[in-house]
Amino acid sequence: MTSGGIRRSVTAWAAAACASFGTAAWANPEPNQLNMTKGVSEWSPYALHMVGFWVCVVIGILVFGAMFVAMFRFRKSRGAVAEKWTHSTKLEIVWTVIPVIILIVLAKLATGGLTSFADTTGSEMTIKITGYQWKWRYDYVDYKGKGVDKVGFMSKLEESSDRTRQLKSNLDPAKIQVDGYNTYLLDVDKPLVVPVNTKIRFVIVGGDVIHSWWVPALGWKIDAIPGIANAAWTNIKEPGVYRGQCAELCGQDHGFMPIVVKAVPKAEFEQWLTTQQDEAKVQKAAQTAQTAPAPANQG
Amino acid sequence: MGHQQDAYFVPSKSQWPIVAAVSMFVTVFGAAHWLNAQPGQPGFGKAMFYVGLAMILGMFFGWFRSVIRESLAGSYNDQVDRSFRMGMMWFIFSEVMFFGAFFGALFYARMFAIPWLGGEGHGVLTHQFVWDGYSAAWGASGGGGPEKIGGFFQTIPAWGLPLLNTLILLSSGVTITIAHHALKAGQRKRLLVGLGATVLLGCMFLYFQAHEYMEAYTHFNLTLKSGVYGATFFMLTGFHGMHVTLGTIMLAVIWFRCAKGHFTKDNHFGFEAVAWYWHFVDVVWLALFLFVYVL
Amino acid sequence: MAHAATHDHHDHHGAPASFVQRWLLSTNHKDIGTLYLIFSLTMFFIGGAFAMVIRAELFKPGLQLVQPYFFNEMTTMHALVMIFGAIMPAFVGLANWMVPLMVGAPDMALPRMNNLSFWILPFAFIMLLSTLFMPGGGPAGGWTMYPPLSLQGESVAYVIFAIHLMGISSIMGAINIIATILNMRAPGMDLLKMPVFVWSWLITAFLLIAVMPVLAGAVTMLLTDKYFGTNFFNAAGGGDPVLYQHIFWFFGHPEVYIMILPAFGIISEIIPTFSRKPIFGYRAMVFAIASIAFLSFIVWAHHMFAVGLPMGAEIFFMYATMLIAVPTGVKVFNWVSTMWGGSMTFETPMLFSIAFVILFTIGGFSGLMLALAPADFQYHDTYFVVAHFHYVLVTGAAFSIMAAAYYWLPKWSGNMYSETWGKIHFWSSVISVNVLFFPQHFLGLAGMPRRIPDYNVAFANFNMISSIGGFWFGASQLIFLGVVVHCVYFSKKKAADRSWEGAKGLEWTVPSPAPHHTFDVPPVIHDDELAHGDTSH
């Protein structure tokens, strides 16, 4: 969220709120999870979500409380006789003005959240994400101001989930686990590897139809639209594996194109990137050797 | 006609509504089937579509005939007349909203979609990552979008045929008003001449519009496929042309009814409804001329 | 023609004997209203059957019953059938039956067009549903039909033409309702003396005429993009897939209110009746409906917070959306104030209305949360949204329709329904609907996207609970069918003209069942007979 005092008060409120939901700091979907994840990125709508939630709870208690009192006190069976009044300008002004004030506070908080979300400046890294039916492609564009050469790959549902999810496969989804965590439909063959504590800018486009790239732990989703590029950013604070799914209906296998982001310490990431670049060079050399006379003609 | 204002009129049962529903179904089902026909397997769609259209024509003929008979028999009181007027006004309002969708598309494509593809404002990344090298412009220089879909084309100059068509439609607005005044003044001959002139002007407009389309396709390579420019151009002018066609047919029908003396100077809703429709078509054209051709 | 004979040939109070004459060629608002209601109930069960397929497949992880593509057809068809086939025709049916009775008119203003409006619908839905049996299958791109996905199917043309037909039907129906309300009111029935239900329909009809043509335009562009090579929604040709979403939601958001404003009207009739106290703040209620309708035109892009709008647009649409909470809040507060100080009894219509106020408000709360754009980046396209719109559409719109059915059945049929079975239906529905939809909030927040046929094991428990609630809710509606059939054909208990002790308004001054023709001569309006009682200023 945003700046200053509002942020602090919101965080305090959110902490109190969180206590009532249990204190688990989950990042990926947990069995019987009730609430939104706080996320692992610098930007998170969690606090705003909780403020909105408690505003609704308080108003709900007041309104429904009044209703239940009315239903109890003013029953014909208890001998209640209907009164005649039909309006009260004073009351109506009160319950127009109070919601307006609450809304102004909410709008202020939300605007702050939007402003910081839209600000992709100062990113140290750019990754291009392309959505296809039904897999994702990741291309590393630049890192620390330098262009990255030819590091890019497809990422699709890993094989054991894919086998299990076939109609009447009779395979048990509960058995698909990684480190004791059920990864059925939430694991890929090749995850997106990113460094922690780095502001990463994502450029997201669609390859065929509209998809939506969503990792709950990063706090947002944004559509991958064919021919139009969208941008978003994240700055992951904790190393870990964060899972998400395509969120926009994109055809028959919409439910089967998960997203896995593996956040690793910077040094480890740099090493990984170098390896990938070297591999790409080797591959490219091999390819050029093979198809020597015909120039590679790829868009 | 001596109606009591406090009595209501409810029309008798009619077979036409259900005939209309069936006809519409036959038409659109046929059309859908036709659109999906594979080469070499034409299917029944085309035939079904034309049968449906014929049924719709027959239905209109029958339905309006019964309404006209009732009207001539004096069954309708002022309240029915007001209901008809409201019906027509709100129908025209719905038509305005239909055109609004296409004008909205034109506005969006021109003010947002194309500039963004060219890298303006919100489109910086789109341009950089997807359409690098595309220089955005509206019309011919913007081509059929980044991929030049439909190939190089030229646009229709506003100050030729379109201007002529504007003048024709504006004059037709004048002639129909003359006819209306004549009807109210009971001048039968002036009415028929004014209305006849309107029909002729409508036909002239359609002729020039058809000519313009042929020019666009044969000389300018401006087609329905010429990117979003061609899409908005032909859909807007095309739907307008269809409305002019419909309006002209309705005017011709009204001319015959006038000739048969169906309308009196106080009671001529049929005439007025068509006149409103014609003015609506006229206003849409002015917007078209401005936003599609001139600007 | 001598004019007192207003109904050309038939005698004034009898329905025509021939089935074809009565039901196919009708110009009678009550018969056409009945046709609409029967059609709507049929569609409710067809759409419900699709929902059962969805919930059955989602009962546990893994695919057990249907292929993913068929699942997508089911979600798409469920929405189209429920929105255009069940909810909207039900409200139009209620308007047909009740608006002329409530304003003292003998019939709708344009009775033949009324019949056409209805008869288009069965054909449109035959066409829509027939795609399920075609080789290419039915539409599977979601009811919103976002391109380019929606253009991949082979059923596009059938679906689009079906939507055109439904649009024509809705526009004609709406024109008829507006003309009836503005032109056919009995002398003395001033606009500000009309029942809130009539007001809500006047405004709804305006919304329909304004936005159904826009939907027609949007789907026409889809059609030409698919079959005639236009590039409205193709960025390579200078278009933009997002353009479709703008046009669609310019229709879509008012459409949402088309499905809830008449519900507001119904609830504003029922709560005063069973509280035996006039509606609180009549003018504020009317004004609130009008403001909600106005706002519905400037909030459309809140369905699109995640498409990557420019920030200024996000902020504008967020603020405008949040504003809707104010008039909606006024309505809820006024309903509670109507109850306060009343003398309440809790017959089935009242129970459904109270459930409406509470559960619709819960849907409103999640709506307020969804309006917060940054939070919507998480909520969007998840089960949180699914929960939200089912709270407003099922416990909102559908509950209000059931409340209306119980409320006016005695007037329609002349018989009282079984109060015991009505209450059983109510309690069974209200409990199961919460079992069905409340856990979906948790699923969405935990990260389950909508429109997926299969899911991670972490989502298993709440999905199973939700499915159980779904089957239970579906079964409960069979009780409703039973109660209605029993009431119409078998009930021995005759209804009084004024079927409810506290009921006010012109519809209760005519006999039960309402004779085939009513108000051949305009009635005399007594202000103290009117439902709202707010004639003092």
UniProtKB/TrEMBL annotation, chain A:
Residues 122-275 form the Cytochrome oxidase subunit II copper A binding domain. It comes from the Bacteria. Its cofactor is Cu cation. Residues 1-27 form the signal peptide. One of its GO terms (cellular component) is plasma membrane. GO terms for biological process: ATP synthesis coupled electron transport. It is found in: Cell membrane; Membrane. Its EC number is 7.1.1.9. It is a multi-pass membrane protein. GO terms for molecular function: copper ion binding; cytochrome-c oxidase activity; oxidoreductase activity. The chain crosses the membrane at residues 51-72, 93-118. Binds a copper A center. It holds the Pfam family COX2_TM. Subunits I and II form the functional core of the enzyme complex. Electrons originating in cytochrome c are transferred via heme a and Cu(A) to the binuclear center formed by heme a3 and Cu(B). This is Cytochrome c oxidase subunit 2. It comes from Luteibacter rhizovicinus.
UniProtKB/TrEMBL annotation, chain B:
The chain crosses the membrane at residues 16-35, 47-68, 89-109, 156-179, 191-208, 228-256, 276-294. It is an enzyme of class 7 (translocase). One of its GO terms (biological process) is aerobic electron transport chain. Keywords: Membrane, Translocase, Transmembrane, Transmembrane helix. Residues 4-295 form the Heme-copper oxidase subunit III family profile domain. GO terms for cellular component: plasma membrane. GO terms for molecular function: cytochrome-c oxidase activity. Its EC number is 7.1.1.9. It is found in: Cell membrane; Membrane. It is a multi-pass membrane protein. Belongs to the cytochrome c oxidase subunit 3 family. This is cytochrome-c oxidase. It comes from Luteibacter rhizovicinus.
TrEMBL record, chain C:
The chain crosses the membrane at residues 35-56, 76-95, 116-136, 156-184, 196-223, 243-268, 280-303, 315-336, 348-373, 385-409, 430-448, 468-490. InterPro entries: Cyt_c_oxase-like_su1_dom, Cyt_c_oxase-like_su1_sf, Cyt_C_Oxase_1, Cyt_c_Oxase_su1_BS, Cyt_c_oxase_su1_dom, Cyt_c_oxidase_su1_bac. GO terms for molecular function: cytochrome-c oxidase activity; heme binding; metal ion binding. The keyword Heme applies. It is a multi-pass membrane protein. GO terms for cellular component: plasma membrane; respiratory chain complex IV. Belongs to the heme-copper respiratory oxidase family. This is Cytochrome c oxidase subunit 1. It comes from Luteibacter rhizovicinus.
